[in-house]
């Protein structure tokens, strides 16, 4: 359907074989067609060229030695010279501007800027920028400010909403015709901005919103070649600029919009000495803007590729069935909130509900609500405003809502974000809870995984097989990969599963759990997390249990659910909460844990009335227990696990105040050497997230070490990491701890409630271990095994490096700073991004 722009190459006939190379253009020395201007490192070349088969002559820039070459910039694309014109020249005019004149001395192109001095020079940089500068080397004009169809590293495209300036890429008419074509690629002025390609004035492709490291709609965008895709929006200045910068100057890459409208990233491959395509957009019809129409959902793996959002039906069945999806879908049932008030007054109004769709390229025309700090707030804002048709809470952005028809939605196999679409209550055909959200896109997955977990729970009674944890690892990894749920597992999953020793998991019936929790009575509620409420229950044999009823409205989807079950059923350690069983019936997904009478650490630590109950000995025991549990997760268990959401509220305490790590919903398994994982979805809790994870989405076991360091300092000080934020002159607990320690007054950090009971040497050791764990660079942080040794006093303690990220004024680069400020600019600093319990 989409003609990919096959020839990446633009040849030119008159490459002036005998051309002489010059290094600058001055008033005295113009550039003639027999010459080329070359960058000092011989990387780029500027000169006159004639496209294959054309009668026109242009001035342009191309790669000098990397053939086949690409014309990356054209000066006079819309005012060509005649190919026969041998007397044309590119000169510096008497006003200091660059001018391209034909043989009649008519100016066909000019830089046309106001120049104070007429003593100017033009030269070409090794980055491909053609620059006009004055005698003091001050840049007066640059080709980077006037792009053609190509984006080079360190070049920016974007706009200034104040001045109306647009610096966009405009395609060639065709491969041999540089004149301005139909397609324009630029950045939109919205928050967050999107990369957009228009065909004339109609949208042709969009990237989805920028999530601070990548675009939500471009899961294939591979940043490994780049130090970064950078998109900076300055609301005050009204500017938004995007650039893609290579890691080092010897990596050559460029992006361009082809005459057929495909935005393409090309990279020079040193191995094969040729250009290769890194990504293209759109690369299939699903990516073309609005293929499935309003409220239509595109999945390139399905056939047909379009379907309606649950609760919607094709506007025209005939058109839809003939695969013309452009008119999209309409609601099956009017929204309850839109119903006529006179009627609703007399009837009991049912609230609308949300249908959740996972792994989505979110629809176009999002509105960003900047004052909403968590997913719950986002949902209730949307629920209470009838014009709100959908919402999505993206950890790195915040709350996005939609008031216009939802268009250009795409479903991915990996990456993407969850979108919750408002539908009338009746549409779901279910009436369990008002906050019910059905995960449409994982329906198949639910059936499948439900079966798998059911099997897992059931097989507990079967004969103990070989304790083959590799098998479970394979199974788990396959499930987690979850590209196409069933397919990746093939038919063998059943066989694999049969051999798994599913330990002591019990399958509970829903009615039994209803009974033991007294119908989930509010008085039995232990707490409420983002993933659902937790209730206390008492089994017939008198044993107490904690029952976590996963609300499907929460962040914990099927993914997290199966993850947690499989992980935790296999992990057994005295400092990890033990999963006793599960229940899957209908829409109910329930986990049953051992009950821990003293609830979570934060209920003591941050409560001025109760913190004294945690004397130093208990705190030290808790610290060492957590360290030991983490060490087990990282190193000793057969499955190597990164927890990813370690925090005080996830540490539960038993009757003897032994700590137990809970909430594995976000945990990820890693294999031996593969310690750096990249995730597009940054989840976790601000304040505990390591810089590399919060900013780059990169996590490793060292991200857990960072969280552990924060937690340790919190336990010692009895203060929340984020609570000191903005107060006084301290950035947060970490910088405060660092300052005290570096001034030699580290003990002042100690919680006043325990200052008289503590062992100063142990406290000092803990503070130092904490500071070592929160160092900026993951490689500087010790691993958990070393930390356990350090805590026990069996190991030397090195000196920590100052945690610069925690000092606002010392944040190293401009980009990094704005990232942090953006993250913390809302009032949500203490909230979980996905609030686990
Ligand atoms: C122009 O290039 C020549 C060498 O090609 C160099 O000697 C000269 O200094 C350059 N002039 C300016 C103004 O850069
Ligand atoms: C120029 O175009 C002709 C016909 O389209 C083609 O055969 C030839 O290979 C092209 N030459 C170059 C250098 O691209
Ligand atoms: C620069 O401008 C001055 C006067 O404005 C003029 O006399 C001189 O010829 C100009 N130089 C060039 C190289 O055009
Ligand atoms: C130069 O710019 C002025 C206004 O800024 C415009 O009127 C003029 O036509 C431009 N000249 C060329 C050659 O583009
Ligand atoms: C232009 O500036 C250069 C130094 O940058 C100087 O050597 C030269 O004489 C100047 N030319 C004119 C015409 O002013
Ligand atoms: C600038 O932003 C406003 C809204 O903030 C918008 O209405 C206007 O169209 C924008 N201008 C441009 C040139 O994009
Ligand atoms: C772009 O728009 C033009 C004019 O509306 C149309 O003829 C052409 O088919 C469009 N191209 C694509 C790839 O959609
Ligand atoms: C830059 O990239 C090249 C090619 O991959 C590599 O050989 C070189 O070591 C890199 N240089 C630096 C400073 O990273
Ligand atoms: C699809 O339907 C629209 C609206 O009814 C119509 O304008 C368009 O021509 C149809 N497209 C095709 C390819 O049939
Ligand atoms: C509201 O309902 C009443 C009675 O059912 C009806 O007469 C009226 O037209 C309705 N108004 C709207 C705006 O639908
Ligand atoms: C409801 O949502 C619309 C669209 O987002 C917004 O313009 C309007 O101000 C909201 N109303 C209220 C009361 O918040
Ligand atoms: C796990 O998977 C790998 C590769 O997919 C395979 O080589 C290995 O045999 C599997 N292990 C088991 C126990 O099935």
What does this structure look like?
- The chain is an alpha+beta fold and 837 residues long.
- Helix content is 21%, strand content 27%.
- The strands form twelve sheets. Strands 26, 27, 30, 31, 32, 33, 34, 35 and 36 form a nine-stranded mixed beta sheet that branches.
- Strand 15 and strand 16 (166-167) form a beta hairpin.
- The protein binds 2-acetamido-2-deoxy-beta-D-glucopyranose (12 copies).
- One 2-acetamido-2-deoxy-beta-D-glucopyranose binds next to loops.
- One 2-acetamido-2-deoxy-beta-D-glucopyranose is lined by residues 161, 164, 189.
- It is a single-pass type I membrane protein.
Give the secondary structure arrangement, pairings included.
Blueprint: E1 20-22, E2 25-26, E3 35-38, E4 44-49, E5 56-63, E6 71-74, E7 81-82, E8 89-92, E9 98-101, E10 107-110, E11 121-124, E12 130-133, E13 139-142, E14 150-151, E15 157-160, E16 166-167, E17 169-174, E18 177-187, E19 194-199, E20 202-209, E21 226-234, E22 239-246, E23 253-257, E24 263-269, E25 274-281, E26 296-298, E27 306-308, E28 312-314, H1 317-321, E29 329-331, H2 341-346, E30 353-361, E31 367-369, H3 375-383, E32 390-394, E33 398-402, E34 409-411, E35 417-423, E36 437-439, H4 443-458, H5 469-481, H6 485-489, H7 492-499, E37 506-507, H8 510-516, E38 525-529, E39 532-538, E40 544-549, H9 558-570, E41 579-585, E42 588-594, H10 601-605, H11 616-636, E43 640-642, E44 651-653, E45 659-661, E46 668-670, E47 677-678, H12 691-696, E48 698-699, H13 701-717, H14 733-742, H15 760-773, H16 784-791, H17 814-824
Parallel strand pairs: 1-3, 26-34, 30-36, 37-41
Antiparallel strand pairs: 2-11, 3-4, 4-5, 5-6, 5-7, 8-9, 9-10, 11-12, 12-13, 14-23, 15-16, 15-22, 17-18, 18-19, 19-20, 21-22, 23-24, 24-25, 26-27, 28-29, 30-34, 30-35, 31-33, 32-33, 32-35, 38-39, 39-40, 40-42, 41-42, 43-46, 44-45, 47-48
């Amino acid at each position: 359907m989409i003609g990919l722009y096959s020839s990446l190459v633009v040849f030119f006939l008159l490459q002036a074989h005998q051309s002489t190379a010059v290094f600058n253009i001055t008033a005295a020395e113009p550039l003639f067609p027999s010459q080329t201007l070359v960058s000092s490192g011989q990387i780029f070349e500027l000169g006159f060229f004639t496209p294959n088969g054309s009668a026109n002559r242009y001035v342009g820039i191309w790669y000098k030695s990397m053939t086949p070459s690409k014309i990356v910039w054209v000066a006079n694309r819309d005012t060509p010279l005649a190919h026969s014109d041998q007397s044309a020249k590119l000169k510096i005019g008497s006003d200091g501007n660059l001018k391209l004149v034909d043989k009649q001395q008519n100016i066909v192109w000019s830089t046309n800027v106001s120049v104070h001095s007429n003593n100017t020079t033009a030269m070409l940089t090794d980055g491909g920028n053609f620059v006009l500068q004055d005698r003091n080397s001050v840049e007066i004009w640059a080709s980077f400010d006037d792009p053609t169809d190509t984006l080079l590293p360190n070049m920016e495209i974007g706009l200034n909403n104040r001045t109306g300036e647009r610096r966009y890429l405009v395609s060639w008419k065709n491969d041999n015709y540089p004149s301005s074509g139909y397609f324009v690629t630029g950045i939109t002025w919205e928050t967050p901005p999107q990369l957009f390609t228009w065909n004339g004035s109609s949208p042709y492709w969009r990237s989805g919103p920028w999530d601070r490291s990548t675009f939500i709609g471009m899961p294939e965008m591979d940043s490994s070649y780049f130090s970064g895709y950078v998109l900076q929006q300055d609301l005050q200045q009204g500017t938004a600029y995007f650039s893609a910068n290579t890691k080092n100057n010897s990596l050559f890459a460029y992006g361009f919009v082809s005459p057929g409208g495909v935005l393409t990233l090309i990279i020079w491959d040193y191995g094969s000495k040729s250009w290769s395509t890194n990504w293209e957009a759109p690369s299939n019809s699903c990516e073309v803007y609005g293929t499935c129409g309003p409220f239509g959902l595109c999945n390139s793996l399905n056939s047909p590729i379009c379907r309606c959002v649950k609760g919607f039906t094709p506007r025209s069945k005939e058109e839809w069935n003939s695969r013309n999806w452009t008119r999209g879908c309409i609601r099956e049932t009017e929204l309850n909130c839109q119903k006529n008030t006179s009627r609703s007054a007399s009837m009991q109004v049912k609230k609308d509900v949300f249908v959740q769709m996972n792994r989505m390229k979110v629809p176009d025309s999002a509105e960003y609500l900047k004052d909403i700090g968590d997913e719950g707030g986002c949902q209730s804002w949307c629920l209470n405003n009838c014009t709100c048709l959908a919402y999505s809470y993206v950890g790195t952005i915040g709350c996005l809502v939609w008031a216009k028809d939802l268009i250009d939605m795409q479903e991915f196999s990996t990456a993407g974000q969850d979108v919750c679409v408002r539908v009338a209550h009746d549409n779901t055909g279910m009436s369990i809870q008002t906050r019910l959200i059905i995960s449409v896109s994982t329906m198949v997955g639910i059936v499948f995984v439900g079966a798998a977990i059911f099997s897992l729970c059931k097989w507990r009674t079967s004969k103990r097989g070989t304790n083959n944890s590799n098998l479970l690892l394979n199974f788990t990894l396959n499930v987690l990969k979850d590209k196409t749920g069933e397919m990746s597992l093939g038919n063998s999953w059943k066989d694999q599963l049969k051999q798994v020793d599913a330990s002591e998991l019990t399958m509970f019936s829903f009615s039994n759990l209803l009974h033991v929790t007294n119908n989930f009575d509010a008085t039995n509620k232990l707490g409420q997390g983002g993933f659902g409420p937790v209730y206390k229950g008492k089994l017939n044999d008198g044993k107490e249990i904690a029952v976590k009823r996963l609300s499907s409205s929460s962040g914990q989807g099927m993914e997290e659910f199966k993850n947690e079950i499989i992980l935790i059923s296999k992990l057994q350690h005295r400092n990890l909460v033990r999963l006793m069983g599960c229940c899957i019936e209908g829409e109910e997904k329930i986990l049953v844990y051992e009950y821990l009478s003293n609830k979570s650490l934060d209920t003591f630590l941050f409560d001025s009335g109760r913190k004294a109950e945690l004397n130093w000995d208990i705190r030290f025991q808790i610290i060492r227990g957590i360290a030991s549990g983490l060490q087990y997760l990282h190193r000793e268990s057969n499955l190597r696990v990164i927890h990813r959401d370690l925090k005080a509220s996830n540490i539960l305490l038993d009757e003897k105040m032994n700590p137990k790590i809970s909430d594995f919903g976000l945990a990820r398994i890693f294999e031996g050497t593969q310690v750096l994982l990249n995730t597009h979805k940054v989840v976790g809790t601000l304040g505990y997230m390591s810089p590399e994870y919060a900013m780059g989405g990169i996590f490793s076991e060292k991200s857990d070490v960072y969280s552990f360091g924060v937690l340790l300092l919190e336990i010692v000080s009895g203060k929340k990491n984020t609570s000191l934020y903005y107060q006084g002159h301290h950035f947060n607990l970490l910088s405060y701890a660092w300052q005290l320690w570096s001034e030699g007054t580290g003990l002042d950090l100690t919680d006043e409630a325990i200052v008289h009971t503590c062992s100063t040497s142990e406290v000092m050791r803990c503070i130092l271990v904490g500071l070592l764990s929160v160092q900026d660079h993951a490689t500087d942080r010790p691993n958990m095994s070393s930390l356990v040794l350090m805590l026990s006093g069996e190991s030397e303690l090195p000196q920590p490096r100052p945690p610069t990220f925690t000092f606002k004024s010392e944040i190293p680069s401009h980009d990094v700073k704005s990232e942090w400020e953006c993250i913390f600019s809302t009032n949500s600093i203490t909230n979980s991004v996905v609030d686990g319990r």
